[in-house]
Please model this.
Amino acid sequence: MSTSLDLSRRPAPQPRPKSLSGLSIPALKAEMESLGLEGKQASMRARQLRRWIHHFGARDFAVMTDIAKDLRSLMAEKYSLGRAEIADHQVSGDGTQKWLTRFGPGIEGESVYIPDVGKAGALCVSSQVGCTLNCTFCHTGTQALVRNLTAQEIVQQVLITRDALDEWPSAEEGRLLTNIVFMGMGEPLYNLDNVAEAIDTISDGDGIAIGRRRITVSTAGVAPKIPELGQRTNAMLAISLHATNDDLRNEIVPINRKYNLAELMDAIAAYPSLGNSRKVTFEYVMLKGVNDTLAEAHDLVRLLKGIPAKINLIPFNPWPGSPYECSSWETIEAFAEILNRAGYASPIRTPRGRDILAACGQLRSESVKKSAAEKRREAMAGGQAGA
Ligand code: SAH
Model:
C-alpha cells in the first residue's frame, strides 16, 4: 500500500495553553472549578495561585510547593504562567521604558514606565486597543477601536514591567514601580468592568500590592460613570479637561458634546470621599494658540473652585500630521504661574522619554505601518518568485 504525504499543508497551530498570569481571584477560582475542584477547595487554590503568581512572580508551577504534586502537574498540563508577547520594548536615556504588547494578531497595546513619577515610578497602562473618542490632539484618537482589553491583559502589562524591573516578590520597600495610571490607549470608563477587575488584582495586598490610592484612572469625561468608578474601585480620579469652556472643549474633546462641562463638574463633585488627601487631578494639554491664554488660566482656577484638585499641565507631544504645536515654554510657565498663585503647586509635567515614545498611540501605529510594509514586501517577493 502506498501513502502519499501532502507537504503543502502546514500543521494546524497548537493552541497555546491558557495563561493564569494576571487573572483575578474569581477568575482563578473558576479555572480551578473547571479542573473539578469544589467550592472551598477551588477558593483556597485560587488564593495560593494568586500569591505565587502575583506576589512571587512565579513562572513555573514546580515552585508552588504548598500545592499537591498531582494538582500541580495537572495545572502545568492545562495552563501556562506566560505573559503576552512583547512586540517592541524601548528604553529611553532618561529611564523611561515603553512596551508594545501583542495580545493577539493585530491586537497591540502600549504601556510606558516613567521613573520619578508618583512615589518612585509609574506605569501608564492601556485599557483598550484604539479608542472610540476622537480627541483632536491625541494620536490614539486617529485609530479606530479594535477592542477592550480584558482584566487579565491589563494586569499583564504590570507583570511585564515587574519582570523587566526584576521586582519580584512584591517587596514593600525600595520598589521602582509604585504607581499605576490608566492614561495609555483607550477610555477606561468605556471598559469599566475589566478596569475594576484589574484594579482588584493590582491592589490585592497578597499579590501585586499596589494600593488603590496609588492607582489613578483618567477619563476624557464619561460623566455618568465617574461616581460609579469611585464606588467600584476607590481609585484616584484624573480628568482630561484641556479646555475651560464648552465651545472649545466640544471641538478638542468631542465627548463634551454628550456630557458638557456643567455635567462633568457635577459628576466629579459626586466622586466618593474627595478631600485634601484625595484630590482630583485635572490634565490640561498645552496647545499653542488654542487653549493657552492667560485668561484661560484664570478661567481654569474659577472652574475648579471648591473641588479638591491638582493640575497637570502637559506639554503637547506632537505626532506626524498632528494639527497642533506645543505652547512655548514661556507661555506654559506664565500659565503655571497663575495656577501657582491660586495655590496649585508645580503643575507642569515635564516631558519624559521623548526620544522613544513621542505621543501615546504612536508605537502601535508604527507597528501597524511596519506590518503593512512587510505585507507589501511579502507580496512583491511572492510575485517575483512566481515570475
Ligand atoms: N481616555 C483617557 C485616558 C487616555 S489619554 C483620557 O482621555 O483621559 C491620557 C492623557 O494623555 C489624557 O490627558 C490625554 O488628553 C493626554 N494626551 C493624549 N495625547 C496627547 C498628546 N499628543 N500630547 C500630550 N498629551 C496627550
The first strand starts at residue 18 and ends at 19. Residues 378-387 have pLDDT under 50 and may be disordered. Residues 135, 137-139, 183, 187, 218-220, 240, 283, 285, 314, 316-317, 359-360 surround S-adenosyl-L-homocysteine (CB under 6 Å). Residues 85-356 form a domain with the TIM Barrel fold (CATH 3.20.20.70).
